[in-house]
Amino acid sequence: MPTDVNRRSFLRATALAGAAASASSMARAASRNSPRPVVISSANGLTATNGGDVSCVELAYNRITGGADVLDSLIAGVNIVELDPQDTSVGYGGLPDADGVVTLDACCMHGPSRRAGGVGALQGVKTPSLVAQAVANVTDHLLLVGEGAQRFARNMGFKIEADLNTDRSRALWLEWKRRTDPAHYPDPGARAAAAHKVGLEMVAEGKIDPDHYYGTINCSGVNAQGDVCSVTTTSGLAWKIPGRVGDSPILGAGLYVDNDIGAAGSTGRGEANLYSLASFLIVEFMRQGMHPKDAGMAALKRIQTQTVDPRLLNEDGNPAFNVLFYVLAKNGEHAGVAMYGGKTRNYAICDENGPRHEPLEGLLSAT
Known about the structure:
Elements (H helix, E strand, L loop, with lengths): L1 H32 L4 E5 L1 H4 L8 H10 L4 H14 L20 E7 L4 E8 L5 H11 L4 E3 H10 L11 H14 L7 H17 L12 E6 L5 E7 L20 E4 L3 E7 L1 H7 L1 H10 L4 H15 L16 E7 L4 E7 L5 E6 L2 E6 L1 E4 L3
Parallel strand pairs: 3-4, 10-13
Antiparallel strand pairs: 1-5, 1-11, 2-3, 2-6, 5-6, 7-8, 8-9, 9-10, 11-12
Helix pairs in contact: 3-4, 4-5, 9-11, 10-11
């Protein structure tokens, strides 16, 4: 009899220990999969404050954790950057097109409601992200452009400014114009090559931030309930051909959100991103189980493979441009990746540990 009692006691203890271990394992797995509030963005989401003390990612995170709608919070955050005259990559004071006119693009996606909206080649409104949100909330459309977008903005009560240049953006345009057009429009091919060359020279001379030559801020966030949203806003490529619209206002390129999976957004050469619809691709890679970093790297490899035009390749046969992705999973895992990383390349984040920059990981080594 004592032997049977000992055996039953041993089996009971073993079963309890196994159940406890299983419960602990399930708890750890649940913890890994439970959403935690996080906001990520391109680097200017922490550096541009419009003269205040709070950055884009800080404001957005504070509002999200305070219970506000995720997209409303993100757009309030990027408004800081759009209104900051010192940031020449978006909104007021963004670097203008070849005619000296500031034209802006933006789009947003609201994961829980599956709503989205965008504007392209919009003039006169300092905060195009808010107009993009109005397109999502008020219309049955996803994208408005040019004069129609401006007319819509006016009808929605937005103030239309005569000129979004600042003294700084206008001075930079004048210098670019003097360097590129001393003989009043040479042949188009030579002019395009000269324009690009001068733009890169101004970057090398420190007159233009290298990340601002292509412009843009992307900002994505998730709350404790796992609601995911994202917004992208930009003044586009510096000195672009008037009418050019890049990837930023295009769903699947400038950003993409699936509330069941996560979000991805981009800065850098928009044409390369458009060819791949890489933000959509990244979210699909995450749907297959990839970590945000691996999904971003896979998209960069796709862009690398698809870049075959000799004028877009460097001496190593690799892309002669940069593309950067900011990737956020529904559970709060995140990554920043770039075609070319480096010590000065980073992205912004705000979570329970506060706001900070974290390094972007490069697919290729900068030469």
